[in-house]
Amino acid sequence: MEYILSLSTQTKSFLYSLGFGLLIGILYDVLRVVRLIFSFSKTAVYITDFLFSLLSAVMTFLFCLSVTNGEVRSYIILGELIGFFVFYLSFGSVAVKFTEKSVKKIAAAFKRFFRLVFSPFIKIFKVISLKFSRLKKKVKKRGKILKKLPKISCKKQKNQI
After folding, report:
1. Are 84 and 25 a contacting pair, CB within 8 Å?
2. pTM of the model as a whole
């Protein structure tokens, strides 16, 4: 293990971290698209941001583990940040415009897909619930009759004594 890394090793690690920062930026855009498709609430923003932070921290740890043998170096973190902001300010702004236009189409495609997949189950559920509602009506009707029976039998017993 080297205590002092050569300049070429540091430069190579820095360039790797720039590329890794771009990958983290892509991850952020993917999570943002998922959030836009499924929900627009503030809670969804907090959850996806927390998920992004957690994933990027784990990925950074694994990246440092593989590139610098687990040593966290400031130029690695700086390279990741620069790579992320280069992506976010250049390709990310284009991706935002593209995703805002296509999110409605993607959401409609998801709705069609889920309708196609779940429509047989929904039909089966409707048939089952219809049968249960009929059964419930019959049980309720018989329950009213059975509820009257003890009163009638008690009255007859009083009259018989």
Report:
1. yes
2. 0.61
